[in-house]
Write a structure and sequence with these properties.
Distance between the termini of chain A: 56 Å
Radius of gyration of chain A: 21 Å
Number of helices of chain B: 7
Strand content of chain A: under 5%
Number of strands of chain A: 0
Strand content of chain B: 15-25%
Distance between the termini of chain B: 28 Å
Strand order of the largest sheet of chain B: 1-2-4-3-5-6-9
Largest sheet of chain A: none
CATH superfamily of chain A: ACP-like
Oligomer: heterodimer
Helix content of chain A: 40-55%
Structural class of chain B: alpha/beta
Order of helices and strands of chain A: HHHHH
CATH architecture of chain A: Orthogonal Bundle
Radius of gyration of chain B: 17 Å
Helix content of chain B: 25-40%
Shape of chain A: globular
Number of domains of chain A: 1
Largest sheet of chain B: 7 strands, mixed
Structural class of chain A: mainly alpha
Order of helices and strands of chain B: EEEHHEHEEHHEEHEH
Number of helices of chain A: 5
Chain lengths: 116, 228
Amino acid sequence: MSTQPSAESAHQGTGDDAATTEDGPGPPMSRAALDAELKSIIADVLGIDADQADALGDDSGLFGHLPELDSMAVAGLLTEMEDRLDIVIEDDDVDGEMLETYGGLLTFAESKLSEI
Amino acid sequence: MIATWQAPLSEGKSSEELLVSFDQGRDMRVLILPALFDEANKLRRLTIQLMHQLNSAGVDCFLPDLPGCNESLAPLNDRTLGSWQAAVIAAADQIKATHIFAIRAGALLAPVSLPGWSYAAQSGAKLLRGMIRARTIASREAGREEQSEQLMEIGRSKGLTLAGWTISAAMFRELEAAEPITTPSLTPVAQTDIPGAGLWLRAEPDHDAAQAEALASIIAAGAVGQAE
């Protein structure tokens, strides 16, 4: 008797539509190589030598901690990261967390490179 | 050492602008085209150090203020890239330049008629991208949300103040499309050709005598090959 189709049948998730792209165009950069490149960029921006840059750890403060690292300098830093790491950084990528510490920036760069 | 030059403005008017000058009437006379906007500040000391080195190497050199920049009294928001290109041609003529040395986005202004060098040339689009990004970061820090694409649209239609520089809509549109001038007689000099990293990257303006010396050697050595 009841012939009404139920709307409830729409409620099922397959969730398997995200294509996984595993093989990028080039060999992936190792974390150590990325770490070295990122430290080199920061050394160029802050005008510190390699030893000082090497001492940067995950918790080392960047934007908001170093007065000389203003918005213009951060913009330069991100542009240099784009050039040297061959990534594109969008507006929405830039947030306080990624810029606040060296570890945040490294994690961000890693995730960007894994997208390629 | 500090002289002046007459920069053409629109409608036949002109403005007197500052000119840093090492002029001993020598054969080689290099017009320096400075980096633009914030990078001009960051590279100012390198530029002046380079000029001292060139002077010691027997080369006359000249650094003009562009109208609207540095000590200029002309308003920046009336300027266009085209008006700066015309001003550079006038400056080259007034100082009787034999060569140019363009720094970063200064290469957007290089007159095609002169030989010379273009150091770490930067496109107008990249210059704008950096300044827009600085603005979105500063805005976010101040609790305002601004998107690059919206800012670009405002820049194109109404002009925009970026990092304290008032850029007219005309200048903005020109910059977006402007590529560094390349001619067979303009030799590119990359940052990797000299020691150290580009000083425009520094958070605080810095200087590096070794870089200035290396750039001066390139110019002085190249002059032998180019002067005919």
